[in-house]
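Subject: Protein record for review, amino acid sequence with backbone structure tokens
Concerning: The relation between a protein's sequence and the shape of its backbone.
How to read it: Take the token row as a discrete description of the fold.
Enclosed: The protein record, placed directly beneath this head.
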Amino acid sequence: MEISSFVRQLLVGISSGMITFVGAAGVSLVCSGMNLLNFAQGAFMMLGAFLAFSLVPILGFWWALLIAPLGVAAVGGLVEFLLRPLYRKNMLYQLILTMGIGFVMIDAMQLIWGPFIKTVKTPVLFDTPSIAMLGTKFPVYYFVIIVIAGLFAIGLWLMFERTKLGMTFRAIISDRPMVEALGINVTSLYSIMFMLGVWMSGVAGVLISPIIAIFPQKSMDILFSIMTVIIIGGLTSMKGAFFAALLVGIALSLGSLYLSWFYTLLPGLLMIAVLLIRPQGLFAGSDQK
């Protein structure tokens, strides 16, 4: 029984970490390419969940997974336009503005969808409550999250390594002045980069919508999880975001089983330890993506 409980919690932690990675990867992309820390990312992720709540009954889950993140990206395009006057200014001004935008989005979501908790139905193909695995029962949809988020991580890597857009992003991250000197429209690329970053949060919001309570203030919990992950992994490291998300997800999940009296403190303690020992993050400098 002890082994089966461990396996179940481990799988739950992996699925939680994978979905957090999808949201954190967007923050890492924007931070590395635009030198901008987006404090509205949690609100963008919750917007994806709310759009899923509205679209799933009409179009079904998979169409919602396709359309809702595009809607989030469109809102992100408007936000990026508001940020343009601050690109040459101190990063603190950008941080304050994105934080303010996040609060506005929370209030707007409450105005549109109300303050009460919403839920999204699990996709029909995966509405079987659980399957037997290694002596334990595990929810089928959690496997779906692991697989989709894993494919997403692979696709993101391929985009950076194998496409012209990805190579241009890498060039901006490495040497922005050189890219500008080559005559490339960096402003347009910033728009694409920011919209891609918030599109990721929209994908994460839709994926997580069937397994969480959806309400506007949940944005702040999500933001804390994302920021914890990118601080531990390194603000500009995609690799760091991936491994840190898994680390935090597994620590929380196993902690709830073995350290139930204080497991909720584990992410914060991990973050503090990293800031004291290696402030730049565990994977800072290990890659440029």
About this structure: The domain at 2-277 is CATH 1.10.3470 (ABC transporter involved in vitamin B12 uptake, BtuC). The chain has eleven helices and two strands. The radius of gyration is 19 Å. The mean pLDDT is 86.
